[in-house]
Amino acid sequence: MADSVGLGKSFMASTIIEEFLNKKHPTWVPEGKDPSVMMILPPSIINQWEELLISSQYFLKDNKIDIIKDLNNFKIYNVSDKENKFLGKIAFLSLGKFQNLKEEDLKKFAKEYDFFVIDEAHKYRNKNTNRWKNVRKLQKKEDGFPNKFLLLTATPLNNSINDIFNLIRLFMDDTFAPFIVKGIPITDLIKNYKDLKKEFQQRDDDKIKRDLKKVATEIKQKVLDEIMILRTRKYIMEQFKDIKVNGKPLVFKDPIPYSLDYSPFYTEDYKSLIEAINNNINKILFEYTKVYGTRYVIFEEETLGGEEPAKKFIEVADLFKLLLGKRLESSIFSFETTLRRIYEKEKIFYNTFKMEMDRIKKKEDLKGIIERAIKRAKIEKELEEVKREYDIEGEEEKTWFDRVIDLLIEYGEEAWGEKKQYSDMDLFKFGLEIVIQNLENDLRYMEEIFKELDKLKEKENGEIKILGKLPADKKDIIDPLIYPHKNDPKFETLKQIIGSPSFKSEKLKDIPSLYRKKILIFTQYKDTAYYIYHNLLNWIKKEIDLHTWLKDKNNKIKIGLVTGDTDINAKVDYIKRFSPEANNGYEEVKKYGEIDILISTDALSEGVNLQDADVVINYDLPWNPMVIIQRVGRVNRIGNEKEVSMINYIPSKEIEVIVGILGKLKEKIDDITLIVGKDVKILSPEEEINIETFGEKIRDISKRTITI
What we know:
This protein is α/β, with parallel strands linked by helices. It has 26 helices and 20 strands. Strands 2-3-4-1-5-6 form a 6-stranded mixed sheet. The longest helix is centred in the middle third of the chain and has 32 residues, at 424-455. The chain is globular and about 85 Å long.
């Protein structure tokens, strides 16, 4: 079920669950068995689903419901009829618990439960993850009886057509029998599309483009229309003309996207910073990554059938340059904290090798020295971050230390050539001297960038002003302080569109004023979220014009911050205070005050209702365009009659050269538009809209031989 964001997928799924528990789909369970439903959900939305299915008056209102299990993020309810006759059960299980289940637990669940409902199903698009593999093990009971699946996502295609192919494989084995018996060569169609797409990227040819569209149409008609329900706002308006919500005619107002270019606000100091970054970033070797054995990472290109996946080796140093560029696209602060972490780690390796090099008499001595440096530099957090950001796996053909020795010998041979024969021990000592020199150079290049960063920081009584610091993290090597910057063009534009319209620059004439609006600000990174929050607090405290809007009668500032670290109860509190109408939160507003600006990472981009907002700001751009759809979907939902604005901060040309994010986003958007369609504009008003509807062939799901 892939209806557009905010069209009520949870209500439709709840209706099917209610029917199933009330024995209206008897063929979905083995004869003589009571129906059981398991919902596999991100932990942040379990409460929301419980409220809808168990507590509200919309569903199961004529049934008796008793909780029989209440563990952390795993709850089971028994459902009975009016006469107290047991009908079945429904379980709520968090994705985190599910992906770590063992084989015996999965077999037990496959036997015990008959209908699996998976919300935010796009999180299962990667076939290399435990969560994907675990869902596949639920397909059948031990006697071969097929279980039923309902996948819910507004974004079935995020990065490539592999996403959809992998979602289909969740509820279907590798024979694809239901397609094959109908004469639909699903694997060939997907492969043809991928091959043509690759060819089109290499050669922009009209014939290839026509062939690509033809295959895309075949996939839509022969594959997607068989297993997917996707309806758009336009479809709903056409099919249900007289429908009303809360007694009012149904109205949809698509969000209006604006592209905000902040480069006109560059000052000379900021230009100097960008120049220093461009001059130094490509010189940095990130040498320390090579001496803990992760010189390369592997990207596997997904293949179909039994083909061996193509492997691409990328130097970690190249990924770090891209990672730093992406942080710079997000905020000065995020860039600086990331670079300072790298600097401190390199410094530890540099000082350790300089101090202990003379003690190295054998390879085991070097191994011990490196292991001590790894521990001091807290490398574990860094490796986790790189893997999470790039979805990669490590190279395991050799041990990490074997790879380090190979590198040092390679360095030694390059330095001394073949003029003289040296022992391996001599060569790797020569190699270590080169490593030390490379580390020293890296530190010097980073220091050049830090000089320019320090010039931008506001000073108070001759000292750099400090607004706060990031929450302590024992895995972090630094304790980052948060500064205000006098020349941050990105934050300057944010202040201008939030503040009084009379002070808004002519350079922003095409961007609407957000003065006295309810504003939702999204960023990809926790660092940036804290930076925006503390800098806004600092600014609002000083701004007299904002007193009546962003300060309540008790002089409390009406902004909030939510990240992945925010406690679930605090998160719910912020949601209710920011969007009281959509979440029945007036009691919280009365107690703690209303919030008019809510800053969040993507911790709030899925599964929550924030319809009270007037505007969504994407302070940085995610790699995945459908994250932007999910973000604005928190506001753009059924019953929202507001005109919602979406403001996208677009990277300057200098930053785009480093990151290339706009080009990648546009390429992915083209793919999405071609395969599953797109009924809203994501980046700009000029974007193409292609409205598709799927599921016309699906009349009565319970009678279909193909499970969804």
